[in-house]
Every structure is written in structure tokens, then in C-alpha cells.
Design goal:
Blueprint lengths: L1 H23 L6 E10 L16 E11 L5 H5 L4 E10 L8 E13 L5 E14 L18 E14 L4 E13 L10 E12 L22 E13 L7 E16 L2 E12 H10 L5 H7 L1 E13 L2 E10 L10 E9 L10 E11 L2 E12 L1
Antiparallel strand pairs: 1-2, 1-8, 2-3, 3-4, 4-5, 5-6, 6-7, 7-8, 9-10, 9-16, 10-11, 11-12, 12-13, 13-14, 14-15, 15-16
């Protein structure tokens, strides 16, 4: 019976492999499948992180990549990046406290130091994750890092790649993965996991050299200064666990100039009106007048930012400092990491509209996520 069972499982496995092989032959050129294993451990990035860390984080990921090949002007200017969509599953090492996480993360992969069979790459991604063991007063009071099931996932990865043949490439990498709900639900210290990654990349229909469109020239770009405005809305929970959620209104005025066809440098002024601060000062009766309470709910900042474009999508990297010193205002420096999307192709000299999603942080802790719309002239 055992022999017959092994034969049946062998036949079934063979049929599945043949089915997968037949399916992959129909995948368009330049699309790759990249399964990888994940081994790391949660690190305590702040003294407020009091939850004990037991065990190592293990899991896996399947990333589906799409290789650009020069069809658009920016493809060659950005060294032919790979767009990806990663599906991940991680066991955080303590199923009772941290549990497990399932993630879906769009990502961008940039390659460098390419030799005959070797190249390095850098991957950056932002997406959503579902964690099954967040903080709960009754069932999970120890977890003071994650306060909700739904979280953002941010991933950075540096990898080394060895090309076996045109279809197969091996991957060894180091990565840092961050989970956070950006204070939409407290507690929100977040989880940071440095890790090692091992995997392979399989490209059923690889692009040939003749498929690439190479012009060898840099696209022309507008070198004038431009004005930009932005209006956004963030959500932040009050100072207590399971408290009410309040809006944070964000306005931004900036001047920018292109450094390259795919790169813009910004400088400007930013304003916040934090309703959770106003509600808290009203609740505890702090300050003598309502005018003082409203003044302490406002923040004014100066910032610089760099925007790196990949067609209609761009990455936003911002650093700033506060001009005010309002009540409950965090550390004097802050950062924003964001993604912008330009839904319309504007003609030269016409305004450009974008929508964006940004995470504001102080040191290693996120304060809130805002989303909104902007226009540049």
C-alpha cells in the first residue's frame, strides 16, 4: 500500500509540475517569479518597546516582477528598473504575542554593479499587511508594538544575484521590514525586522538583447523653478489606547526644480492642524483660553524633499524641522516617506496634478499617515 501511495503522489506531483511548466510558458516576456525564504528577528528600536521577544521571525515571499525594457523615455534613464508585487507570510516567533503577518507589497527593484553573471540590486516597497495578534486589553495586553490588524508594510532590501542561465538566477540578500499603522490605532511603536533572504528568480520568457530599446541619450528636461501646493488629511488616535480618532490637516507650499529628467528637488513650508492635540488640551483644561489651545494644535515647519520619478509614479523623500514649539509636538526633526501618482499626462507648461500617500515619522516611530491631492505650476 505504501508503494502504491508513493506512486500516486509521484504521479500527482508530476502532473502538477507539468501544469506549472505549461502555464509558465504562456507568461509574457520579461515577467519573473521570485520565491524566497526569510530569517530574521524583531529588534527593540526604542526603550518604550517592553514586549519580550521570543524566537526568530521566519517565513517566505513570492514576488512577481515585470522588467522594463526602454519603451518609455524614463526606463533607460532609471537603468531599466523592475516593478514587482510581493506576497509574504511571516511567523514573528511568538504566536501568542506577535502572531503572524500576511503582506501584499508593490515594490521597485534597481540593479547596479552588473558584471557578466553577477549584479547587485536594491528593492524598496510599500504595501498593506494583516497581523493576527494586535494589542488587546483582554487577550493580548503584552503587545505594545502593534495596535490593529491592518498595517502598512515598508520593505528595504539589498541583494546579490548570480545568473545561472537566461531563466534562473539565485538571490542572497539582507532586508529590513517595518510594520506600523502610523498611530491610527494605539499602541503603535511598530515592528522592525532585519533579516537574511535566500531565493531564486525564474523568468519563463526572458527578454533578449534585441528586445531592449536603447537610445543612449538623456531626455531633455525643464530647468525652470516651479510652484507647488498640497492639501492632505491624516488620522491619529488620541493619547489613550482605544481612544477616539482625530484628523490632522496638512498643507504644503513648495518651490522645486528638476535636477534631472527623473529627479526634482523641493524646498518649502508646511503647516499642520492637529485636532487630537486640541481635543486633549480641552479635555484636561490646559491653557486659559480657547485661542491658546488652538494655537498649540498648530505646527509650522520648513522642509526639503527629493522626488524620484518612474513614469507616473514617484518616490517622495522629505526631511524637515519645526518653526514652532507647540504642546505635544514631537522631536524637532521629522521625515516623510511617500508615494505619488500623476493620473494625467500634462502638456509642457501646463499644471500637473498628483495624488499622494505619505508616512510622517520622528526617528524610528511613525506619527501618522496622510493622503491628499496636489498641483504644481
Amino acid at each position: 500500500m505504501k508503494k502504491r501511495g508513493l506512486i500516486r503522489w509521484g504521479i500527482l506531483g508530476g502532473i502538477m509540475l507539468l501544469s506549472v511548466w505549461a502555464y509558465t510558458q504562456s507568461i509574457p516576456k520579461g515577467i519573473s517569479l521570485e520565491p524566497s525564504l526569510y530569517f530574521g528577528k524583531i529588534v527593540k528600536h526604542t526603550s518604550k518597546f517592553t514586549t519580550p521577544i521570543n524566537g526568530y521571525t521566519t517565513g517566505g515571499e513570492l514576488n512577481i516582477g515585470i522588467q522594463t525594457y526602454g519603451k518609455r523615455d524614463w526606463h533607460e534613464a532609471q537603468k531599466l528598473p523592475v516593478f514587482g508585487l510581493a506576497f509574504s507570510y511571516l511567523n514573528f516567533g511568538d504566536k501568542e504575542i506577535f502572531g503572524t503577518g500576511v503582506g501584499l507589497m508593490p515594490n521597485l527593484n534597481l540593479r547596479f554593479l552588473k558584471r557578466k553573471r553577477f549584479y547587485g540590486d536594491f528593492r524598496f516597497g510599500v504595501g498593506l499587511a494583516w497581523l493576527n495578534r494586535p494589542f488587546n486589553y483582554a487577550s493580548n495586553p503584552t503587545n505594545n508594538a502593534i495596535g490593529s490588524n491592518l498595517n502598512t508594510i515598508v520593505g528595504f532590501r539589498f541583494g546579490t544575484n548570480w545568473i545561472i542561465n537566461e531563466h534562473w538566477t539565485t538571490l542572497a540578500a539582507v532586508s529590513l521590514t517595518h510594520y506600523s499603522n502610523a498611530a491610527s490605532s494605539l499602541p503603535n511603536l511598530g515592528i522592525n525586522i532585519p533579516a537574511l533572504n535566500l531565493g531564486v528568480r525564474y523568468t519563463p520568457q526572458p527578454l533578449m538583447e534585441a528586445d531592449y530599446v536603447r537610445t543612449g541619450r538623456s531626455p531633455e528636461f525643464d530647468k525652470r523653478f516651479h510652484l507647488g501646493i498640497y492639501q492632505g488629511l491624516g488620522i491619529k488616535e488620541s493619547q489613550a489606547f482605544a481612544g477616539p480618532k482625530y484628523p490632522v490637516y496638512v498643507s504644503r507650499l513648495s518651490v522645486h526644480r528638476r535636477l534631472k529628467h527623473n529627479n526634482r528637488l523641493y524646498a518649502g513650508f508646511e503647516y499642520e492642524y492637529a485636532m487630537h492635540v486640541l481635543a486633549f488640551t480641552q479635555h484636561i483644561g490646559l491653557f486659559e483660553t480657547e485661542k491658546e489651545r488652538r494655537k498649540n494644535a498648530q505646527r509650522a515647519m520648513l522642509f526639503i524633499a527629493d522626488e524620484v520619478s518612474f513614469g507616473r509614479v514617484s518616490l517622495w523623500l522629505q526631511a524637515g524641522t519645526y518653526m514652532t514649539r507647540s504642546y505635544l509636538q514631537p522631536w524637532f526633526l521629522y521625515t516623510r516617506l511617500g508615494i505619488r501618482y500623476y493620473p494625467f499626462i500634462a502638456r509642457k507648461g501646463h499644471p500637473r496634478i498628483h495624488i499622494g500617500l505619505y508616512m510622517k515619522s520622528h526617528k524610528e516611530v511613525a506619527e501618522y499617515v496622510d493622503y491628499g491631492i496636489g498641483i504644481t505650476f
